């Protein structure tokens, strides 16, 4: 609604428009913990119809102090990973997923590109996202299968780049699609490669760009832990993952 439209009530048609302000505790703050700071809050202007009493529009006087909604959601999602350790991509009967919590690909890609989460298919060949600590603990306990010749070809080609599109790697190798896809999935399932960036396809979807684990590990801090890695991993994920699913992840 632009300023000229505020001159008329959309409910009763009256042009008798008034303005009021939310002050004090009625101000809008940038986050739930900023209630004590005037610099982190804004008065709210309210345009109202003086005849029927309906609120026509509200707006803050200092919109520039507020965070973009995606930035807020990115931080919320990161905090979730730090607390709970993992999320699946797609809906699952018992386990939490990106979809079920209302996050989207844009939120995921932000965390991936900042090396704050790890993408793998280690959970029964399903896409799963792990916190960095969970990835590092899992790497210590998972039974990583050795590379076949086809797997080595794909891995070695990807290792030539900081990151690359899956289709570009296949074209460079001139490998048939079925053989290449099988090798690529194996590398994702066994923690040899991961997503490290996103390529925007449309407003709501991205494809991933991939890198080897060696490249990924250069961008994160090492794990300093001397205890039982499996017990430590379970202690993180047990709040939202059942024991059977945990054993599938660790297998």
Task: Explain what the structure shows.
By secondary structure, this protein is of the alpha+beta class. Helix content is 35%, strand content 22%. It contains nine helices and eleven strands. It has helices at residues 69-84, 105-113, 132-141, 149-158, 166-173, 177-189, 213-217, 229-237, 243-250, and strands at residues 17-22, 28-29, 41-42, 44-49, 55-60, 86-88, 117-123, 126-131, 164-165, 193-200, 206-212. A hairpin with a 5-residue loop joins strand 4 and strand 5 (55-60). Helix 1 (69-84) crosses helix 2 and helix 4 packs across helix 6. The N and C termini lie far apart (56 Å). The model has no long low-confidence stretch (mean pLDDT 90).
Break the fold down into its secondary structure elements and pairings.
Blueprint (H helix, E strand, L loop, with lengths): L16 E6 L5 E2 L11 E2 L1 E6 L5 E6 L8 H16 L1 E3 L16 H9 L3 E7 L2 E6 H10 L7 H10 L5 E2 H8 L3 H13 L3 E8 L5 E7 H5 L11 H9 L5 H8 L1
Antiparallel strand pairs: 1-4, 2-3, 4-5, 6-8, 7-8, 9-11, 10-11
Helix pairs in contact: 1-2, 3-8, 4-5, 4-6
């Amino acid at each position: 609604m632009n300023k000229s439209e505020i001159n008329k009530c959309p409910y009763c048609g009256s042009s008798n428009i008034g303005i009021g302000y939310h002050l004090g505790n009625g101000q809008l703050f940038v986050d739930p913990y900023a209630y004590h700071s005037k610099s982190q809050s804004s008065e709210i202007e309210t345009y109202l119809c003086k005849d029927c009493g309906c609120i026509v529009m509200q707006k803050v006087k200092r919109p520039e102090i507020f965070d973009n909604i995606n930035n807020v959601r990115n931080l919320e999602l990161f905090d979730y990973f730090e607390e709970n350790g993992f999320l699946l991509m797609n809906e699952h009967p018992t386990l939490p997923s990106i979809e079920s919590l209302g996050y989207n690909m844009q939120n995921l890609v932000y965390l991936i590109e900042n090396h704050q989460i790890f993408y793998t298919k280690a959970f029964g060949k399903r896409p799963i996202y792990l916190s960095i600590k969970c990835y590092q603990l899992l790497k210590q306990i998972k039974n990583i299968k050795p590379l076949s010749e086809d797997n080595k070809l794909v891995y070695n080609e990807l290792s030539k780049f900081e990151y690359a599109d899956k289709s570009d790697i296949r074209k460079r190798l001139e490998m048939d699609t079925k053989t290449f896809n099988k090798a690529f999935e194996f590398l994702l399932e066994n923690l040899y490669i991961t997503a490290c960036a996103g390529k925007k396809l449309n407003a709501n979807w991205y494809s991933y760009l991939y890198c080897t684990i060696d490249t990924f590990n250069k961008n994160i801090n090492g794990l300093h832990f001397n205890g039982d890695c499996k017990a430590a991993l379970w202690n993180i994920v047990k709040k939202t993952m059942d024991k059977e699913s945990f054993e599938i992840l660790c297998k």
